[in-house]
Amino acid sequence: MNPATLERYKKYVIPNYTRYPVCLVRGEGSRIWDDQGRSYLDLFPGWGCGLLGHCPPRIVEAVQKQVATLIHVPNTWHTEPQALLAEALCTRAAFSAQAFFCNSGTEANEAAIKLARLNGKPHGRYKVVTMYNSFHGRTFGSLTATAQPKYHAGCEPLLPGFVYAPFGDVEAVRNVIDGETAAIMLEPIQGEGGINLPPVGYLEALRALCNEHKLLLIFDEVQTGMGRTGTWYAHDHWGVTPDVVTLAKALAGGVAMGGLIARPEVAEKLRPGTHAATFGGNPVSCAAALATIQTIDEEGLLARSLAIGDQFKARFEALKARCSWIKDVRVRGCMIGVELTVDGATVVKGCLERGLLINCTHQTVLRLLPAMNLTDAELEEGCGILEEVLLALDVRV
Ligand SMILES: *Cc1c(COP(=O)(O)O)cnc(C)c1O
Questions:
Q1: Which ligand 1 atom is the nearest neighbour of the CA of 248?
Q2: Could you read off the pLDDT of 134-162 as tens digits, one per residue?
Q3: Is the domain defined by 3-55+300-396 classed in CATH 3.90.1150.10?
Q4: What is the pLDDT of residues 2-31, one digit of tens each?
C-alpha cells in the first residue's frame, strides 16, 4: 500500500485495530480494489454491513438524492423517510411493532437494555440474562451483555444486573431466572461467537420461559437481520416472536444505522426524555435503508440468500469429506461458518494472498457473510480459492 498512508496511520490513528497492510479505495458488488489497483473477491463485505455488496446502485442513488435534499434534522421534527422506514420494518415483522432509530449495533442494544429496565422497573425487575459466546457491542451495557471475559478484561467494574447461561441450554437459563429478572437477550444465531445455530426447540423454549416469568425476549439481530439468513428476521425461521429486535450492520446497506422494533406495549416505555439519539433516524440513513429493503424485495434476494447458503453448504460438506481438519459446517442463508480443528488465521491469510477476503472468528471458525446478490460465478470463484487454500493447509503443526 501507499507508504505515506501507512505512515499517517502510524502517527495519527489510535492502533486499536489489527489492520492488514492494504488500503481499499473502491468497491462494486462483491468486488473491491486496493490502492495498487489489485482487485479482491469480498465474501465478508463491510464486516456484515454490505449485505448488497459494495456501493449498491439503488442505495447510491437514494443517498445522493437525499443528501442533496435534507441531510439531517433533529427528532423534534417529523421526516417522511423515517416514517416510511419504520413502517417497512414493522410490517415485515410477524408481530405488531414500533421502531426506534440510532446509529450502531451497540447503541441499539443499549436501547433494548434500557427498555428492559424501564419495562421491569414497576415490578422490581432489572436483570438481563445473556448467553456465553454472545456479542452485543462495546459500550458498557452491551459489553456487559457480551458474555466473553476477553472483552471485559481491564474495563471492570461492569454494569450490574447481567447473568449468563450457555447458548443452547434452556435449563441453565431457567436456573438463573429469579424475581428480579427482566429479560432474556440473545442472538438467534450467534455470529461473532462462531455462527452457532440454536438447537431444535431452544428459541421456542425461551419464549415459553419468558411467557411463564413475564420477561421480555430480546433478539439481537444486528448481524442476522435484514434478510441475511433468507428471512427478513432470522427468528422467522423458528416462528418464535420476540418482544424486541435490535438491528444495525446491514440495515442501511452499508450506511451507518442502528435501530430496534418492539411490541407497542413495551415500546411505549420509551417516553419523551427517557431515551434519544441525535443522529438517529436521520433522512440519509433512512433513505439508504428504504432502498436496501426495496432492492431485496424487487430482486427477490431473500430466496437468493437461501440458495447461496445451500450452495456453500453443499461445497463445504463435500470438502469436509476430503479435509479432516474441517470439523463442522454451519450455514443459514448468507451466514456461513466453517469450523476447523486448527487455527483459521493462516487460511484467511492464504485467501488474501489469492485475492479473496474472508474472516475468522473464535480462532477456528472461518466466517463468510457474502452479499445476497453474489453471482454463481463469484460463488464458484470464492469456493475454488477456499478449497485450494484449505487442501494445501499444512496441518502438521
Ligand atoms: C456487530 C454486532 C454488534 C455491534 O454492532 P456495532 O455497530 O459494532 O456497535 C452487536 N450485536 C451483534 C450480534 C453484532 O454482530
A1: 7
A2: 999 999 999 999 999 999 999 999 999 99
A3: yes
A4: 999 999 999 999 999 999 999 999 999 999
**Which residue among 16, 106, 285 has the greatest number of ligand 1 atoms within 8 angstroms of its CB, and so is best to mutate?**
106
> What is the average pLDDT across 253-279?
97
Q: Is the peptide bond before 272 cis (omega within 30 degrees of 0)?
A: no
Nearest to 225 by CA among 217, 215, 216, 235: 235
Q: Around Cβ 72, how many Cβ atoms within 10 Å?
A: 12
Q: Is the CB of 191 under 6 A from ligand 1?
A: yes
In the chain, domain spans: 3-55+300-396, 58-298
- With 0-12 / 13-18 / 19 or more C-beta atoms within 10 angstroms meaning exposed / middle / buried, residue 11 is exposed
Per-residue cell: 137: 457491542
Give the helix ranges, DSSP H, for the chain: 3-12, 57-67, 80-91, 105-120, 140-145, 149-152, 170-176, 202-213, 264-267, 283-298, 301-320, 345-353, 376-391
* Domains 3-55+300-396 and 58-298 equal at CATH topology level: no
Q: Is 221 in the pocket of ligand 1 (CB under 6 A)?
A: no
Opening angle at CA 64, ends 63 and 66, nearest 5: 60
Ligand 1 mean position to 24 CA, how many Å? 22
Q: Does residue 253 contact residue 52 with C-beta atoms inside 8 Å? A: yes
Residue with cell 463469484: 378
Angle at the Cα of 145 from the Cα atoms of 251 and 359, rounded to 5 degrees: 55
Alpha-carbon dihedral 50, 54, 55, 56, rounded to 10 degrees? -70
Q: Whole-angstrom Cα distance, residue 134 to residue 323?
A: 29
Options 3.40.640.10, 3.40.1190.10, 1.20.120.530, 4.10.400.10; which CATH number does 58-298 get?
Answer: 3.40.640.10
